[in-house]
Amino acid sequence: MNDRHVALISAFYDALGRADFAAMESCYHPDVSFGDPIFLEVEGRERVMRMWRLQLGVRDGLRSTYGDVTADDHTGSAHWTARYTFARTGREVSNEIDALFRFEEGLIVRHHDEFDFRRWSKMALGKPHGLLFGWTPLWRKSIRDRAAQQLDEFRPA
User: Fold this and answer.
1) In this structure, are strands 59-71 and 40-43 parallel, antiparallel, or unpaired?
2) What is the C-alpha separation between 4 and 17, in angstroms, rounded?
3) Which part of the chain is the SnoaL-like domain (predicted)?
4) Which of helix, strand or coil describes residue 72?
5) What confidence tens digit (pLDDT) does each residue in 122-133 have?
6) pTM of the model
């Protein structure tokens, strides 16, 4: 167990819970990459932080909790829950997420979140779209394309 890396992961999630972007950014290596089922791959600290700003802007009242943080000298993991109102539909979401991390130079250089896309789409989009189409490749592509476009167009204030 690497206590310093455990503390780094905890500091990241504590900052996320406060929407403290400067503190979140300080946990990331300049060459960080982020991946999840919606954004797939986002490269570089500036772009990853833009993604977080976008996410926190479209999620009304994000409340997050985390636990099961473990880390060694090279990798780490955590489980976290994101609770929010999905702005596009006004629906309540409680997303269970497993996160994996890789460290370099004492910072997070790789952050990957994994969650059940179909379960998320049912909560965020509701019936019939999320329930009927949330598992289909075409629907996933549509969601991913929209997220990528929003990220490309998003300019934080």
Assistant:
1) unpaired
2) 20
3) 10-111
4) coil
5) 888 887 665 556
6) 0.89
